[in-house]
Amino acid sequence: MRLDELAARLDCRLRGDGGVDVARVAALEQAGPGELSFVAAKKHLALAATTRAAALIVAPGIDLPKPLLETPNPYLAFARAVALLHPAPRPVPGVHPSASVHPSASLGAGVHVGPGAVVGARTRVGAGSVLHANVVLGDDVELGDDCLLHSGAQVREGCRLGQRVVLQNGAVIGSDGFGFARDDDGRYHKIPQVGSVVIEDDVEIGALTAVDRAALHETRIGRGSKLDNLIQIGHSVSVGPDTVMAAQVGIAGSTRVGARVTLAGQVGVNGHVQIGDGAIASGQAGLTGDVAPGAFVSGTPAMPNPDWRRASVVFAKLPELQRRLRRVEEALARLRSTSE
Amino acid sequence: MRLDELAARLDCRLRGDGGVDVARVAALEQAGPGELSFVAAKKHLALAATTRAAALIVAPGIDLPKPLLETPNPYLAFARAVALLHPAPRPVPGVHPSASVHPSASLGAGVHVGPGAVVGARTRVGAGSVLHANVVLGDDVELGDDCLLHSGAQVREGCRLGQRVVLQNGAVIGSDGFGFARDDDGRYHKIPQVGSVVIEDDVEIGALTAVDRAALHETRIGRGSKLDNLIQIGHSVSVGPDTVMAAQVGIAGSTRVGARVTLAGQVGVNGHVQIGDGAIASGQAGLTGDVAPGAFVSGTPAMPNPDWRRASVVFAKLPELQRRLRRVEEALARLRSTSE
Amino acid sequence: MRLDELAARLDCRLRGDGGVDVARVAALEQAGPGELSFVAAKKHLALAATTRAAALIVAPGIDLPKPLLETPNPYLAFARAVALLHPAPRPVPGVHPSASVHPSASLGAGVHVGPGAVVGARTRVGAGSVLHANVVLGDDVELGDDCLLHSGAQVREGCRLGQRVVLQNGAVIGSDGFGFARDDDGRYHKIPQVGSVVIEDDVEIGALTAVDRAALHETRIGRGSKLDNLIQIGHSVSVGPDTVMAAQVGIAGSTRVGARVTLAGQVGVNGHVQIGDGAIASGQAGLTGDVAPGAFVSGTPAMPNPDWRRASVVFAKLPELQRRLRRVEEALARLRSTSE
């Protein structure tokens, strides 16, 4: 694609030769002739000076001796450039002969059902949705239009997914919540989990992530939220819109996570707590209680990030502090014996 | 079902109108006419006062202007009420035409084998067990009666599961333990894992949880224990009966976990240690050594919970402590120079 | 097998009766007549004195009243003995009738494709490789010779695996990396992940471990590295040769892990950092920045292990330190008032 056409499609300001042809995108280090790359931050300017890319997407104020596409959000323009230049292959519509689609299920126009995929009774799959190999949809599942379920993803009975939902490989939606009542002998009895899961529009769920069904009502993931791999979402959790969670986050039952929240990798969140809109937790934080909207927390138990950073610096010096305290005590004892 | 019949079936004391009909269970917030809810703790009394539920299961001493089912263990009665009012649909017995059952395998009476499920050579499936879509049982597997394996669950060759075992979606039983011997060049050589896994009666294993086979003998999960999602059980681990582990717990090889142990989410346990009966570990704790029976531990490395709580409070104040220590040192220096 | 033959095959020095027959291997506790066990460390000598094993593999300097196989690396000899005495059953070559192999795919000599397995378009499977039940290989995948993919493992489009690669059950290779660009309204837009994953020779990937594909170039796992279960490898990560990671480790995007690195269970590593060759991180460590070659780190944020151990000892005493500091302050205040 010619750079001037790409500039128009990406809503970027063209600086330099618009007649250059770009066929692919690539990282600064690997890019070569015919490839488009991007510079999102000034710290990458040194690398950008040596790239062999044919053209670059840049933020305003960045100047380089290349054809440039200037935009206030280079990362977003880059995302769109990738989609334009590397369109994902569309699986052909139709049901593979080895798939098992229940006679009472309904498939919208253009749906692809791959080898070994299973669609349960009364389940409805929206137009344009793709079920890759060995995907399993249980009975009474509702799937919106243009969903993309990668191989091995599973959606249990009665769960509802909106439009354009993406499930990565092996994701599990609607497994039983972890609910057991203990009797007087210390034995656990299962509380049947008769609720469901609702995944709103434009959500992406990572590989091998589990979203448990509620005991009674519903577990809900809000519109546009993005969950990475190997995450655990407990029963009756609700997650607001536009929230992101990195890999291996775990959220215990009945917790409410707000909108635009960011949870870094391996964060753990207790059950029955509230995480306010826009809150951020750094990696491995343990959120044992409510977190205020907009707060940035770290550590276990979680505390404000600046406090945690300062306390962690002192933690490393604890043996020294202990020695200094002992010396002070000794000096004081000597002073007192002198002054007596 | 009439409330007086339900009271009899749940062994509860009926207080109020036994002629009320209840058809479903629901949480206090969502319950409406014809629905049964429960009040387990006095802290939910305010919510209970506003619920539209037709009747409530309550502990003795709780009084509300509703028909009530009174029992010392409301949570357990509620679990039974859910099972009574929401019986799980029984998949029809039989083998789906797309399933692959080895000719030498044996299936008990009433077994259901779903689409795409695979049953290996010489494998035996007990009466009434259900294998949902794409479940895989390897060769020489033994599965007891009335087991329930959700879609995508996998049991490797030679593993044995007792009666009424539940595997949630994507659970893996019998993957190879992580055992490698290092040679003089620093290269790792696999130690073939020729042991197996034994899962005793009434165990439930969560979605995407892995229980590794032993190198030589067996990995064992004790009767009635309940494991949540995304848990790692290393090779040759043994877990006693009636133990519960929340999501994302990891237990390294050869560790022995006792009976009635509770491990909260994301707890890590070292290899070759012993966790005593009835021990409790709070979320994200790192159990680096043995834990005494009945102990309640927290933190990494784990310590008694009350000590950890108190130390964590001081941790947050470390920068302040450091400043106070410096002031004390300075004051002392001034005192000494004065007294000289 | 006669012990003298086994000694020759394992390159061990025979001490005692070479005519003894050993048929199996077993742990010291469980071993009986006809079984071989091993003593790797002097701490197991007491146990070894009571074992009923027919013969033992031992390190030089260990003396026991049994036929012995002496070698400087007993653990490695034991690994080989297991492989010799317990050869894994070879699945018969051929494609199960319920498998789906795309007409444009190519299968090498002796390949086994199990029930329900799926092989995509243009995908090449090397000679002797085994795809167990319900394995899914996407389009344009390259798999070397003698690979072993356990049931439910999945390899996405365009990924390349070398020779003798082992994937445990449910492992996912090539799921989309977690890349989203945020617009001015706080909504996230997917950055199509058009890179791939390269797994070099002799790598083993654990059950339910996810290795994400790169956004643009490749994610790479180096020759001979061994990854345990439930691990997350982010996009564009590179891992050097002969590195081991225990279960539930998580590595964020673009991080470079060196050769012969050891990451214990539940370690988290930030994105865009470098972990030097031979570095070691203890369980649950949080590696927030670069780690020098050969360093041994612990804690979050990670610090040198000896420092962390010492600081952790003092951490447990923080309430006591706080009390001592207060007493010092009070004593000092009294002294000053006295001296005034």
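DSSP finds five helices and 38 strands in chain C.
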